[in-house]
Amino acid sequence: MSEIPPLFDVLWFRIVVGLIVGSTLGSFVTMLSYRLPRHMSITKLPSHCPSCKARLEHSELIPVVSWLMAHGKCRHCGTAISKRYIWTEIVTAIASAVTFVLIGFQLWLFAALAGIVAVITLVTIQLQR
Questions:
Q1: pLDDT band at 8 (very low <50, low <70, confident <90, very high)
Q2: Which DSSP category does 74 fall into?
Q3: Average of pLDDT values for 27-50?
Q4: DSSP state of 81
Q5: Minimal CA–CA distance to 17: which of 25, 81, 126, 40?
Q6: Which of 37, 75, 70 is nearest to 56 (CA)?
Q7: Can you tell me the distance from the alpha carbon of 124 to that of 105, in angstroms, rounded to the nearest whole number?
Q8: Phi then psi for 55, rounded to 5 degrees?
Q9: Distance CA 54, CA 18 (A)
Q10: C-alpha distances in Å from residue 1, one per residue of 4, 9, 11
Q11: Contact 41, 100 (CB under 8 A)
Q12: Max alpha carbon distance in the chain (Å)?
């Protein structure tokens, strides 16, 4: 009888967890890349539409899914939401999933994910200029 590997060592599990964690980090990256150049607080302001300033509901904060469900538009004012948001979330999710596969669930994973967030945030800010 073959031995079943622990769940943390199963490839599909690492990919799924990596994509979920990565898309969440990608949402954080989009917030950082919008607020840091504008010298806005990253802790005090709730997520909101940059156009009408309407506060986003919890259901509007689900990475990738919320953008797709809203057809890339604000639910309150109808203003188009830049594709930069969804692409940043997707790229961060993919980079994170690859990192989960390569490193696994080890302490170094946190440092690698922090590096991914930092690099993608800096690149996104530079691309906006």
A1: confident
A2: -
A3: 94
A4: P
A5: 25
A6: 75
A7: 27
A8: -70, 135
A9: 31
A10: 9, 19, 21
A11: no
A12: 61
What's the predicted TM-score (pTM) here?
0.90
Q: In angstroms, rounded to a whole number, what is the distance separating the alpha carbons of residues 57 and 86?
A: 17
What single-letter DSSP state applies at residue 79?
Answer: P
The structure tokens 């909101």 sit at 48
User: What is the rounded distance in angstroms from the CA atom of residue 85 to the CA atom of residue 67?
Assistant: 8
Q: What mean pLDDT do residues 65-91 have?
A: 95
CA dist 100 and 23 (Å) reads 13
For residue 37 the two structure tokens come to: 């150049």
SS3 57: coil
State the residue for tokens 């898309």: 23
Residue matched to tokens 């950082």? 32
Alpha helix stretches (DSSP H) within 2-61: 11-35
